[in-house]
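Class, study these two lines:
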Amino acid sequence: MTALSDAAVARTAAADAGDVLLALRTSFGDAPGLAARGDSGAQATIAAVLARLRPGDAVLSEEAVDDPARLRAERVWIVDPLDGTKEYALGRADWAVHVALWQRGELTDGVVALPAEGVVLATDDVPPALPPVADPPRFAVSRSRASDLVLGVVEELGGVTVPMGSAGVKVAAVVRGEVDAYVHSGGQYEWDSAAPVAVARAAGLHTSRVDGSPLLYNRPDPSLPDLVVCRPELADAVLAAVARRAGAAGTSRTS
């Protein structure tokens, strides 16, 4: 039997978790506790897949106790079993499953699954070349709490906002050409962005912190509070606008 590649393992874990999440939502609808059932069910599913197929690897997951041994490991899976719990519980489609692999300092493989849409985006199968940047440029933003910094950048660049749910969905929208940029300044963790950033990089998109510095993973503190994912031809303008807005008013701490 041919051994599965790391990308295939990520696909399997994300797809199996997506199936569990869809089945739970069918069974329980909008009943109280659906979000908690989804988080725990997807976590258990991904953990079982990784334990079976990559038993020697470390794991960092939003829904599991952090094991400091990961800091000494050469291979670490960074997982968000259900990104967009609120959207999931509301019966919306804009939630995701994230599975990424970090190896020796770099993200090497990643999958963002959008189970409610039947879509899987992966580092080994990126979308074809994107069309030109829209005029005006489109920015993915939070449905309810886009920060003043982000809204200021959009205004300065003459862009338009496109509200949507989870971080994974927002990055996926850039990868799929549905929007041109996603700027976030309100607090996230490594599991929120690892898989989306891996896929975005594979698609040739710009990825960085809002100050232009690299996004680094498998750190002692998994907080990774801000990011920019955008079309490369927009990167200089977006980062310059962020710098001007942050310098004038201070970076907002709400997403």
Confidence is low (pLDDT under 50) at residues 250-255. The chain has two domains: 6-122, 138-249. The two ends are 47 Å apart (CA to CA).
